[in-house]
Amino acid sequence: xxxxxxxxxxxxxxxxxxxxxxxxxxxxxxxxxxxxxxxxxxxxxxxxxxxxxxxxxxxxxxxxxxxxxxxxxxxxxxxxxxxxxxxxxxxxxxxxxxxxxxxxxxxxxxxxxxxxxxxxxxxxxxxxxxxxxxxxxxxxxxxxxxxxxxxxxxxxxxxxxxxxxxxxxxxxxxxxxxxxxxxxxxxxxxxxxxxxxxxxxxxxxxxxxxxxxxxxxxxxxxxxxxxxxxxxxxxxxxxxxxxxxxxxxxxxxxxxxxxxxxxxxxxxxxxxxxxxxxxxxxxxxxxxxxxxxxxxxxxxxxxxxxxxxxxxxxxxxxxxxxxxxxxxxxxxxxxxxxxxxxxxxxxxxxxxxxxxxxxxxxxxxxxxxxxxxxxxxxxxxxxxxxxxxxxxxxxxxxxxxxxxxxxxxxxxxxxxxxxxxxxxxxxxxxxxxxxxxxxxxxxxxxxxxxxxxxxxxxxxxxxxxxxxxxxxxxxxxxxxxxxxxxxxxxxxxxxxxxxxxxxxxxxxxxxxxxx
Length: 515
Ligand code: AHR
Fold this sequence. Notes:
This protein folds into 2 domains: 5-39 and 404-513, Golgi alpha-mannosidase II (Immunoglobulin-like, Sandwich), CATH 2.60.40; 42-398, Glycosidases (TIM Barrel), CATH 3.20.20. The chain has helices at residues 3-13, 76-83, 131-141, 156-167, 173-180, 209-226, 246-257, 277-280, 284-302, 341-356, 389-398; strands spanning 26-32, 37-40, 48-49, 90-92, 116-118, 123-125, 145-148, 191-194, 231-235, 263-270, 312-320, 361-366, 376-379, 382-385, 402-404, 407-409, 412-413, 421-422, 424-431, 434-441, 448-454, 463-469, 485-491, 493-494, 497-502, 506-513. The chain is α/β, with parallel strands linked by helices. The strands form 6 sheets. It has an 8-stranded parallel β-sheet with strand order 3-4-7-8-9-10-11-12. A 7-stranded antiparallel β-sheet has the order 2-15-19-20-26-22-23, with helices on one face. Strands 16-1-21-25-24 form a 5-stranded mixed β-sheet, with no helix packed on it. Helix 7 (246-257) packs parallel to helix 9 (284-302) and helix 10 runs parallel beside helix 11. 25% of the residues lie in helices and 25% in strands. Residues 51, 53, 94-96, 196-197, 317, 367-368 line the site of alpha-L-arabinofuranose.
């Protein structure tokens, strides 16, 4: 049995909700018009996240005694792999951890910092990686920092003084302390979170929407009065479970914060608990729906308000996460999810969805960067790249400029949760005479012959083709084993037309010059 037939058989066995009718000659059409734009693709869509959780920071990016680390304790091999992901914004210190983090504990000589009980994930926090280490890491990476303040067990003053410590030019007790700790110039941290997942009962300091809105408003005022240049991210919905009233949470929070928040944070994790490939790879349909709904809530919150304020969506935690989770996940080796090809396809469809809402989604942070539900997996001797690394890398390095609204005519299928799911899930960016097309073929067993037509331009040469695929949908990578990765090819275009056959269970990026 050849590989693709074998994987189709495998996939159908695991995919009860897939329509089996269309077995031959699946075809699709895509029309591209470089003037039909959705909005500017914010580079911050390719952000990431590090939390004091498991081996993400301690034993991931930071390993002080390792021969693989530099003088700062940063793992050099991990840093190299992170650099290739072109991370545009790095969120820290949590996550749930941020709700019991007191930032002043992480200052001064490392050996003198206080170890504290860490209640989010059940460890002891050494505080050896603090504000200076984080901002030095950000500089080593050449990215932008995003700090999530503690609005759980923390105070207004603590949040305000963190901004002052990092950003103020004045001569104050806080800035003297910063200088004493070795940093003269302010860092100018622009992005600040007003707490994390405050809608979740699991969160330390969880409040009702009204109580959170009031508390966050006072913190926001102090933070903006300390530095008017900061951009604030309000804790929107992470709790979409039955009975959670996620839309009500956002509506109420924005009543308080509509003049102070610059972004509304939303979180979403998905999984294939039912082992239903067709349904799982359609998860971005739900993401799309939530973005549209949250966009409407934001419009309503701003309607009739003075000025021309904008509030964007920061989808600042998202990923596949379902295997390594549960109450027993406490301690050091936790949330160490191993990803397979179907997870990588879901990641590509999430990125497509963010690009397709480039007008409203301006920040997105995959959760998380290393070891903990992450694209990079390390041990004390090295690392390997998980399947989900590859789509993120291709998007982050290539899909820039304007997001284009495509016309896509694709065969469809039905799943347990969704009707009319297109087999081809697409997005496009147009930048400086280059069109980039991202296409996921959600079909587990059939290729789809696709004709692209440029409405207003012509291809001026061959198109580069990058394909993320593997032997079957359950293929995983590991130390010394890379079954899922990017392979490079090229395809000939013919003036306005480009024909391409998308392989089953693949993500493909096509990139070509047009004029
Ligand atoms: O990313 C893992 C955890 O998921 C984060 O700490 C929390 O914000 C979310 O629930």
